# Entry
Amino acid sequence: MKTHVVGIDIGGTKLATVVADSTGHILSKVRKPTLAERGPEYALQLLFAMVRETVELTGLEQNAISAIGVSCGGPLDTKTGVVYSPPNLPGWDALPLKAKLESEFRVPVTIENDANASALAEYRFGGGRGYNALLYMTMSTGIGGGIVIDGQIYHGANDTAGEVGHQILLPHGPPCGCGKRGCLEALCSGPAIARRAQAAIRKQLETEEIATTELLKLAEGRIETVKSEHVLAAARTGDTLALQLVDETAYYMGWGIANLVNILNPDIVLLGTIAVAAGDLLLNPIRKTVAEFAMTRPAEAVKIEPAQLGEALGDLAAIALVI
# Structure
């Protein structure tokens, strides 16, 4: 009897496979480096072997698997299961991933953008339980998002809904990886926070002989190695410059979220990664800005909270698609 599912999480540096029961309880896991430079065929053969290994670790027969869920960076087509050249997976150009997996394992395969799959996982297993309309946003290397309404991912006309990081706040602002300028991602992603911090330290050094910020000490005196983690750590010590950077980040994030709150009227917005690490240091000023910028009724209805699933998110995102 087919009672279990397989989840596959595909990233530029790591591949992960899990087997879970019908409640979402994970029974076994396998992790291996992607070695993306070896191309898609190497990754496919590795994934096939990892799925078999993960099933074997549970003691189940291969025919106990009812479906496979795949969480992968886009762009991709959820209907056809074709992956189109994700930035961190060179050579994956129009790769028919769904067809390849279904041919190999003879079970239905569902493929989803990783941000959307993460939103669904938070809806089913994490901070979104009990809510009807959820917006999930991750603050990491980029700013991605997923929208879940009444248990269904909202995809839009051609699978590009949820690109929350590419709303333009400052038309003449810093360049973004999407080719535009002043996107939320160009202001509040981890690398963007680091760039703003490095620029602020250099400006301080123009007027002072010695930088007084704790940021430079945490980066061992090298401006070019300052990261967003250093900004949060320094802010917790009360460092003036770091607190200013956190406030700027919260202002832009709150502005962007307020736009989305007005448009989507969600019950809850869940913020991942950097926001989870920062906690109320970042969340409280974000909430304040949302309350100021959003329309009164949607602002009163929404909760803004940290995502809950942490390191389990990738595993649960993949299996949330198929249980």
